[in-house]
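User: Could you walk me through two proteins back to back? I'd like the raw sequence and the structure tokens for each, with a short line separating them so I can tell where one ends and the next begins.

Assistant: Of course. Protein one, sequence then structure:
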Amino acid sequence: MAVRFPSVLRASFFSAKKSTSRSLDVPRGFLAVYVGEIEKKRFLVPVSYLNQPLFQDLLNKAEEEFGFDHPMGGLTIPCTEESFIDATSNLSRA
């Protein structure tokens, strides 16, 4: 019996054990991003999303707001958690 994960995962769901390096928590083929207005939550998205126009719009917003200085130390997407989930759920259906 196979277990199917949704294409966008909350990072805490995917990493079962703690490690000293956050980069070790990101499985191959995924990218960690931080999303949220007040409290930033970490999500893992497939790298295949990087060439999708909708996700590129999110990356452009991040560049406009933060440039290359992201406060979380990783890629931060400036939108609400709900709108990020809505946008990426549309990508997973395509």
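----
Protein two, same layout:
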Amino acid sequence: MANFRTFLLALVFFSFISLFLPSCLAYNVVSYGARGDGGTDSTTAFLRAWSAACSSISPANVYVPRGTFLIRTVTFTGPCRSRIEFRVDGTLVAPADYNAIGHSGFWILFYKVSRLSVYGGSIDAQGSAFWSCRKAGRSCPQGAKSISFFWCDDVLVSGLTSVNSQTKHVGIDYSSRVRVENLKIRAPSRSPNTDGIHIENSRGVTIKGSTIKTGDDCISIGPGSINLWIEEIGCGPGHGISIGSLGSSNNEAGVVNITVTNSVFTKTQNGVRVKSWARPSGTYAKNLMFRNLIMRNVGYPIIIDQNYCPDNSCPHQNSGVKVSQVTYKNVKGTSSTQVAMKFDCSYTNPCTGIKLQDIKLTHIDRLRRPAILYCRNARGRHSGTVIPKGCF
């Protein structure tokens, strides 16, 4: 009986002590030599802190305190032994010379890491010089994504601010069960190909409660994207939320079960878009839901473009991408072009199963030119009030 009482007292004692212990072991990058002065190369210190945290048998935290930390191209590699956090209270900044990160395709890369949480802070890729190189037509490197997740599972990215990416701000590839929330993404509207968030060959991705102002797609969804949920996005300026471009090759993976809901588009080139190249392909996009969306002075609020040709080097063939089961529900607002809805589909693979329900889109110059709906090779139906009328 005495032994049992001793066991209970020990259990209560350790339970009480655990309330005051940190939930995970902290590895401060400053302890490994990083300096938050904005000029000292802290790449090695970050890698040392990551290696120690990743090797921990207990949940671990890589901590970046206040300050500005200069880091070059860096890969945080897993798998790690336990759950791991990467918590940033300061700012990570890339070198001013765009060549320092521009040749690798990425700046900050998490590779094969599971049970990962990335919290807060800011990252600044200082992309303006790289954009100038691109615009001038000089010989430039390929450019780098700011923060990327390759082959990662069970990931949370929360509260991050990303500014001035060379190319894409956030890349999610070959990953699953990823949640992205409360992000702030910013680059000038003139910045070329600066997608906000790009997803490809990934499943179970949720993007929620984020503001994206950039020079290309706010969110771009590439081949192999399955079960995506996108909600409460403030998009603009930029090119909207796009699926594609699809059909670059014959053996691309399809895009299935995409939902975009409760979001606002402001002065974007497009609203919600599906785009594919006009060339043979065996891929598809199906079960797409766009609902509860507000368009404010948007170029093409609703668009399916199967003759995508951004640089006038068009294949001039018929798209082999099969687009089907696409629903637009409760989409309202204004279009800056007369064509508020455009369904330009493939002659050999018409779009099928398009559903329009409770749509009200007007042209900002509606007194002179009312909004119109353009259809080619598209089949579907409508219910409720649909403005502009036409097609089906």
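The chain has four helices and 30 strands.

Let me know if you want the two compared in more detail.
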